[in-house]
Amino acid sequence: MTRLIGVGVGPGDPELVTVKGVNALRDAAAVVVPVMEDATGPGRAEATVLHYVDAAKVVRIVFALNERSDHARREAAWDAAGQQVAELLRQHGTVAFATIGDPNVYSTFTYLAATVTGLLPEVRVETVPGITAMQDLAARSGAVLTEGTEPLTLVPVTAGAAALKQALDGDGTVVAYKFGRQAAEVAAALQASDRTEGAVWGSALGLPEESIRPAADLAADDAPLPYLSTLIAPARRDGTRGGKL
Q1: pLDDT grade, residue 84 (50/70/90)?
Q2: Residue 129 in contact with residue 64, Cβ under 8 Å?
Q3: Residue-level pLDDT at 192
């Protein structure tokens, strides 16, 4: 049987890879990791994988991870990556693809799997869930993601700040992904919605360069933030224990 397995390897801390994820990486004949064209060293997924498998089994494949304007170039890169993975599957039978976070949450794996199944209709696609950045940030910062009947909204700020502002105008917890390049807009949205207090952001979670800070610092910090920065704006709460049960 030909199997393509998307393995979530968490936000960066190797200790947050699940036992099932480690087993899937070790059992696969080859482990694919995504890299950008201009990458000079191992990316976050690859660095995590190397804690558990031999480097000889790791295959780096270039993806257009940061291409958003040239649709044709992005499609060509996806096609080329899919062809490479399909060939690995023909050779080895079982291939794992390591993705930061979870393979079913804003992951490169989704697009890869669709491309590969078009080339190899018989391939069996599986996923192993991984710990997400919002879970790790909540644990490291002490932010409570949800209580009782509170909703949780996850917004990728790469789509623009309008969706974030709409979510913040509600009462539930809001998580923003990939907001580093739009930190000023995020700070403005928090202030306009009166959601700055209690909100927290973090980047490079579990890594030596980890940064976790109050969202109130965003407006005062003019330095560019890492692209994969994550924000948690907890739900509006009155402090009553179990008040939303």
Answers
A1: very high
A2: no
A3: 94
pLDDT band at 73 (very low <50, low <70, confident <90, very high): confident
Give the neighbor-by-neighbor strand order of the sheet with 58-62: 58-62, 30-35, 94-99, 3-8, 124-128
Task: Tell me 226's DSSP state.
Answer: P
**Amino acid letter for position 187:** A
Q: What residues are paired with 96 via a beta bridge?
A: 5, 31
- pTM equals 0.90
Q: Which two tokens stand for residue 243?
A: 């008040």
Rounded to whole angstroms, the Cα distance separating 157 from 161 reads 6
* Cα angle, residue 198 at apex, residues 193 and 204 outer, rounded to 5°: 105
Q: What are the backbone angles phi and psi of residue 6, rounded to the nearest 5°?
A: -85, 120
Strand-pairing partners, residue 175, are 154, 232
C-alpha torsion sign, points 205, 210, 216, 218:
negative
Q: How many residues does the chain have?
A: 245
pLDDT at 215 over 70: yes
Closest CA to 100 of 4, 16, 208: 16
Query: How many C-beta atoms lie closer than 10 Å to residue 198's C-beta?
Result: 16
